[in-house]
Amino acid sequence: MASKPTWITVWSAFLNRQFSPTTTTLANWAATRKLTKANQPGIYNSHNELLDNRMYWTAFILEIFSSLPIVFAALSFGGILPYLVIIGTLIGFFLDVRIGVFLRRNSFTHNTNTALLSIANLLKLQPSQIANLQNENSDSKSKLLDWGGITLLIVIALLKTLFFIITGWPPTLYVGAGFIYLFVAYIHINHTGFRYKYVQFRDSLMNDYMSWVSSGGQINPPSQHTFQIVLPAPNIRPATASHLQQQVAALGLSNANNNIQINYLNVLDDNDAFQLSSAQVDNNSSIVRQICLAAQLNQIGINGGNMPTNTPKAPPPPPPPPTFNQNTFQNA
What is the per-residue pLDDT across 116-169, written as a single tens digit (0 to 9) for each? Predict the structure, then answer.
């Protein structure tokens, strides 16, 4: 049985377009934390994943460290009390983790709907569709649940601190513990859920790679895609881009009679889109970024008429080419 590859090996093969990611993997990638920049579309990039991971493990270490005084005190009583304290600490930590993950349950919907709203004019979305997207991104029930989760994390932190107070520990200790527990709550609110989303993407991409290797390249082989849109933008320049050390021309942007076409290998990520848009001048750079974003969304089956409310566990294949007024989309 072959050993599990390192993440560096998988990521390098992915960047070199040696294998195709599944639609599920792309949907997981779309749900990760995004870097919002004017020159990048924004759904096929991940931002601060290393920081999120480090903060997660920092929270774990701080939870263990802050419980040590209670464990040592429990040792003086003997019996199973020290074990109960340790088990209680671990249960409390994983409860915090579950709440942190819950807070980012809608990140896929938020990211993709935000992307659709940013290209609403390009897609010729109707006012009712735009209103629906805005409502999903600002759902009052969802926001209430988020505030409930945040409040619960803070209450749990205060209850842990209260335990130090009622058991007679000196102020220096319980004040310090209180700051630690509130900092841990902050980590779970701002980092834990995004770490979980990135781990989902990483594990999914790892599975795609292993399927590709074990099948001798028969599963998830490299695949060429074409995204096409009819748009009155005659001054868009043809452009190409390459990938890393392979220097394979995997991207191509062409424009003939307002029929704008993007050819790409496996996936059109944000770096690809940046290269294609950078070849343009004036307002055409913005237009090409929007076209690239439409292509990205189209690859996971989102085209303006299909607006999911949750991250799909097994996203469907891209739908038949839809039509928005004068615009025609194709995904081959």
Answer: 988 888 888 888 888 888 888 778 888 899 999 999 999 999 988 887 887 778
- Rounded to two decimals, the pTM is 0.82
* The Cα angle at residue 112 between residues 107 and 117, in degrees rounded to 5: 125
Q: Which of 62-66, 119-123, 199-203, 270-274 has the highest mean pLDDT?
A: 199-203
CA 98 to chain centre: 17
AA identity, residue 208: D
CA distance 23 to 2: 25
In three-state form (DSSP H/G/I as H, E/B as E, the rest C), the secondary structure along 171-222 is HHHHHHHHHHHHHHHHHHHHHHHHHHHHHHHHHHHHHHHHHHHHCCCCCCCC
From residue 243, how far is each of 62, 90, 163, 239, 331 by CA, in Å? 42, 44, 56, 14, 22
